[in-house]
Design brief:
The complex is a heterodimer of chains A (about 200) and B (about 750). Chain A has a five-stranded mixed β-sheet, sandwiched between helices. Chain A is of the alpha+beta class and about 200 residues long. Chain A is built from eight helices and five strands; from the N terminus they run ααββαβββααααα. Chain A has two domains: about 80 residues, Ubiquitin-like (UB roll), CATH 3.10.20; about 80 residues, Orthogonal Bundle (DNA polymerase, domain 1), CATH 1.10.150.120. Chain B folds into three domains: about 170 residues, Aldehyde oxidase/xanthine dehydrogenase, molybdopterin binding domain (Aldehyde Oxidoreductase, domain 4), CATH 3.30.365; about 200 residues, Aldehyde Oxidoreductase, domain 4 (2-Layer Sandwich); about 220 residues, 2-Layer Sandwich (Aldehyde Oxidoreductase, domain 4), CATH 3.30.365. In chain B, the strands form seven sheets. In chain B, strands 4-6-2-13-10-11-12 form a seven-stranded mixed β-sheet. Chain B has a five-stranded mixed β-sheet with strand order 1-25-19-20-21. The longest helix of chain B has 24 residues. At the A-B interface, helix 3, helix 4, helix 5, helix 6 and helix 7 of A face helix 1, helix 3 and helix 16 of B.
Chain lengths: ~200, ~750
């Protein structure tokens, strides 16, 4: 099932009306009604997880505050910085811009699932080798984004700088364009591009 | 140990580990998302309630009514705190009765200005800036707190505020800590100078925009407060929290083990730690709060805007005769001046000098330090003005700068020489590597299709600041050295370079060293600010390691002065023992501390550099693309070239941002920063930044510390924006004196 954010809001409203007793629902102002709960099943890093969540909980907060997977970062909560980037069914998204309730049945991939110290994913290792981070706060998002971005190129998905839409090829300019949703204020940008290039070229 | 005479040959000079590139020791945790930042200590505060700060919707005035009843009734809400029920706290200038414990350094709040770091919250109906805390809503969940925060109804009486620096600047006064600098006779020298310029530059308010928002978790165990927060200088954080709450510093533990960027934004505390602590005490359970991204811009601090008038006069030989730099800036009464004329004291020779800073009161949010406060914006003006005068004189901009080099403090004379100064070498090396000789000095002459191409240069200088710093070291029976210090790593590489210092000093490999940072239970340290961290914290650790070496040698029965530490062994007089055997199962610990004498007074100390930029400007749209950049730095010993290079890349990128896009737009009617998020306050992204090059010149500064290092984190931004602006001028002929150089401004002045 594919839910839009609007669909989810409508469903939450329905849940409220159905869940509350008639008189309370009519007399109490919206603000004092108990929040609607949703039963959500996610597969996170290959593990089945079941959550009973306030329907207002974003996918990012479900991961960070409820599953304690704090590798995905909250930099802006507005879809403007990319620190919260995770994969949903293999494609990268800003998890702060998506409600958890919209992802019932989805497969979520986070930095914790990519690799751990001692058995790092090649992209994680390349980020260390090229010093592709400083403070580290945008880093999980950069890495998740980079891994999924290479898949997008492989799958022929064009970007703003792709010249021939029928012939999508890897290039440094493609990487810079496609990674521009992931802000790094420490500005490890040249090192991140070098790390991605190593992974793309099979050198990491 | 007091560092008050030049360092001699020492263990660091071996360069076995120090001076080499090592990958970050905190890397594996950071790339796997396991390094915990302030808001992420779930297991230490398992039942934390969530707080959301309600910010003032006006910039100046009073709260006339505040209705919290609806918020209090909202589901899950456990506390709504406003000025009507918030506990009394202590502000700047007010020490709590009984004090908060001993003053820890000259910038602590215990001295002449008690409570310097205090930040009381919700102390009355008065509103002094937009998004100041006016209520704090705490609930069982974040969503409940966030929604309930919207239900706090506030009525204000709005007062007229002062928001326009240009309109207010003439009311400015000379700040106490920035007296005028008047050498020779500027007025007559400038009047008589054969070549001169008199130009005014403006720089806007800028936002640090570090990636991790300010966040705190507060937990009380009895009367003992633990705060997981994001702070660059731990003891300032302790001082601010204890001072504000009116409790002894021993009762406050601050932990900032990982910090998601600082750039000055986390040198002070803001609403989050204080409100979390107050609410947690009242509720008897931990409370966590993070500022939202939009709150950061108006609730916390920023780099204040400046207006700068540069008057430079030179002889026909190109020697500067008169240097005048007037700076106007604004701030809240307690805020400091943006000291944008600071670098002009030291950068160039010239007998007649007049530097003046005037600070006027504004009712905007607090202005404070952001990466290279003073120099970063001062050089945006000075280094473009130098370019303008070089053009007027018909001199090459690099030769003009070299002509005016000085090897001593030009205000004080030859009796205050520079400890080291390799500006000329930076300029010459950079010119050679960057292909400066191919530059066409006439603007607007080089084309690449629709693009106009230009290259520009600027000098970089950043004062070398030093701060007392301590560390504790312990060699345990398994041969592992553990380093503990309050020093923080805000992305600068402290974890890694301190491991390198420890490994070098004890003759250990890197994998036998553990570094623990950012905890007030460790010895006080310099912290991360003013580029003093790497040099000062390393020096403190150096002395701690010296004490540990002596203790180990003594335990081994060796003469400590000629003991050698290498390959996990201590050796002297032909005998050698394994360190692990000497220290035994209980290990040996030592502490050490560096304090600095008057070497920074006797010698002018600064790091130098030269930045080169090539830009392409779209001849139709005036869009600017930076094509390549080079920075050449002379900054003392480079402890880790890889992490130091990254610091420079970060500074260069932020400099590009300052030149081309960063601008907190002031709404002069309502007095706040309009573009308060990352979609509207633009910082450079991947697509804006090309491959960039950094070269470090070999340099040791033996007057700086036993490490002979200086800072690079701020040097990297100093002058960069001016190099870009000079390149835009070279490309188009447009001289924009109003930063940032957005396309509308360039298009209006483009000659072609």
């Amino acid at each position: 099932m594919s839910l839009t954010r609007r669909d989810a809001m409508i469903m939450s409203g329905v849940a409220v009306a159905a869940g509350a007793t008639g008189t309370e629902a009519e007399s109490a102002p919206a603000s004092t009604r108990p929040p609607p709960q949703a039963d959500i099943r996610l597969t996170v890093n290959g593990q089945a997880r079941r959550l009973q969540l306030d329907s207002r909980v974003s996918l990012l907060d479900a991961l960070r505050e409820h599953l304690h997977l704090t590798g995905s970062k909250k930099g802006c909560d507005h879809g403007q910085c990319g620190a919260c980037t995770v994969t949903v069914n293999g494609r990268r998204i800003n998890s702060c811009l998506s409600l958890a309730v919209m992802h019932d049945g989805d497969e979520i991939g986070t930095i914790e699932g990519l690799g751990r110290p001692g058995r790092l994913h090649p992209m994680q290792a390349a980020f260390i080798a090229h010093d592709g981070f400083q403070c580290g706060y945008c880093t999980p998002g950069q890495i998740c984004s980079a891994v999924a971005m290479l898949e997008e190129i492989k799958d022929g998905i064009p970007s703003h700088v792709t010249e021939d839409l029928n012939d999508v090829r890897y290039s440094a300019d493609e990487v810079r364009e496609r990674m521009s949703g992931n802000i790094c204020r420490c500005a490890a940008y040249p090192n991140i591009v070098a790390a991605i290039d190593d992974v793309h070229g099979g050198r990491a | 140990m007091k560092f008050d005479s030049a360092a001699g040959q020492n263990v660091i000079d071996q360069g076995r580990i120090v001076g080499k590139s090592y990958p970050r020791v905190d890397g594996p945790l950071k790339v796997s998302g396991l390094a915990p930042y302030a808001h992420e200590y779930h297991s230490d505060a398992p039942n934390a309630a969530y707080g959301v700060i309600v910010g003032a919707g006006i910039s100046k005035g009073r709260i006339t009514a505040i209705d919290t009843s609806e918020a209090e009734r909202a589901p899950g809400v456990v506390l709504v705190m406003t000025h009507r029920n918030a506990p009394k706290q202590f502000g700047i200038g007010h020490a709590p009765p009984g004090g908060t414990g001993p003053q820890q350094d000259e910038k602590d709040g215990g001295g002449e200005k008690p409570g310097r770091h205090n930040k009381p919250q919700l102390q009355g109906p008065e509103v002094r800036h937009f998004d100041q805390s006016v209520a704090f809503v705490v609930a069982e969940t974040f969503e409940q707190a966030r929604d309930a925060a919207r239900l706090v109804r506030i009525t204000y009486a709005v007062e007229k505020g002062r928001f326009d620096l240009a309109a207010e600047k003439d009311k400015g006064e000379m700040p106490e800590d920035t007296p005028d600098s008047n050498v020779g006779n500027f007025d007559s020298a400038f009047a008589a100078a054969p070549a001169k310029i008199d130009v005014t530059y403006t720089t806007p308010d800028q936002a640090h925009s570090m990636m991790e928002p300010h966040a705190s978790i507060a937990r009380w165990d009895g009367d003992q407060l633990t705060l997981w927060t994001s702070h660059q200088i731990i003891h300032w954080g302790v001082d601010g929290v204890a001072g504000t709450l009116g409790i002894h510093k021993d009762k406050v533990r601050v932990i900032s083990a990982y910090i998601g960027g600082g750039f000055g934004s986390k040198l002070m505390i803001y609403g989050d730690p204080i409100l979390a602590a107050l609410a947690a005490r009242q509720l008897g359970r931990p409370v966590k709060v993070a500022l939202t991204r939009p709150q950061i811009y108006n609730h916390t601090s920023h780099r204040p805007a400046t207006i700068q008038r540069l008057r430079l006069g030179a002889g026909i030989d190109g020697k500067l005769l008169a240097i005048g730099h007037d700076v106007w800036c604004g701030n809240l009464p307690e805020g400091e001046a943006e000291n944008a004329a600071d670098q002009t004291k030291l950068l160039y020779a010239g007998a007649n000098r007049l530097l003046r800073t005037r600070k006027t009161e504004l009712d905007l949010p607090l202005g404070a330090s952001m990466r290279a406060p003073g120099e970063a914006v001062g050089l945006l003006a000075l280094e473009c003005a130098m370019d303008e005068l070089a053009e007027k004189l018909g001199l090459d901009p690099i030769e003009f700068r070299i002509l005016n080099d000085t090897q001593f403090d030009p205000e004080k004379g030859p009796e205050r020489p520079f400890s080291t100064r390799h500006l000329v070498e930076c300029l010459r090396t950079g010119a050679d590597k960057f292909g400066w000789s191919k530059r066409n000095p006439k603007p607007g002459m080089v084309r690449d299709g629709r693009w106009l191409i230009g290259i520009g240069v600027a000098s970089a200088i950043r004062n070398n600041l030093v701060m007392a710093s301590g560390a504790r070291v312990r060699l345990s029976g398994d041969g592992v050295l553990t380093i503990q210090t309050q020093m923080t790593d805000i992305g600068t590489g402290s974890y890694t370079i301190l491991a390198q210092i420890g490994a070098e000093m004890l003759g250990l490999p890197m994998d036998k060293v553990r570094v623990e940072l950012g905890d007030s239970s460790f010895p006080q340290s310099a912290g991360s600010g003013g580029s003093w961290g790497a040099n000062s914290a390393s020096a403190g650790l150096y002395y701690a390691c010296e004490n540990l070496r002596n203790a180990i040698a003594q335990r081994a029965g060796f003469n400590s002065t000629d003991s050698q530490f290498a390959d996990g062994k201590v050796s002297a007089g032909g005998r050698s023992r394994n360190l692990a055997d000497v220290v035994g199962k209980d290990g040996i610990s030592a502490e050490g501390k560096v304090e600095f004498g008057d070497l920074t007074k006797r010698f002018a100390q600064a790091a130098f550099g030269a930045h080169f930029a090539e830009v392409a400007v779209d001849s139709v749209t005036a869009e600017v693309r930076v094509r390549r950049m080079l920075s050449v730095c002379a900054a003392g010993r480079i402890i880790n070239p890889q992490t130091a290079r990254s610091q420079c890349l970060g500074g260069m990128t932020m400099g590009i941002g300052a030149a081309l896009m960063e601008d907190q737009v002031v709404d002069k009617r309502f007095g706040y920063f309009v573009n308060h998020d990352l979609a509207e306050y633009h910082v450079p992204v991947h697509a804006d930044i090309p491959d960039m090059e950094v070269i470090f010149l070999d340099e040791l500064d033996d007057k700086s510390s036993p490490i002979k290092a200086k800072g690079v984190g701020e040097l990297g931004i100093c002058g960069v924006g001016a190099a870009v602006a000079n390149a835009v001028h070279n490309a188009t002929g447009a001289r924009i004196r109003d930063y940032p150089l957005t396309l509308d401004k360039i298009m209006a002045k483009m000659a072609v």
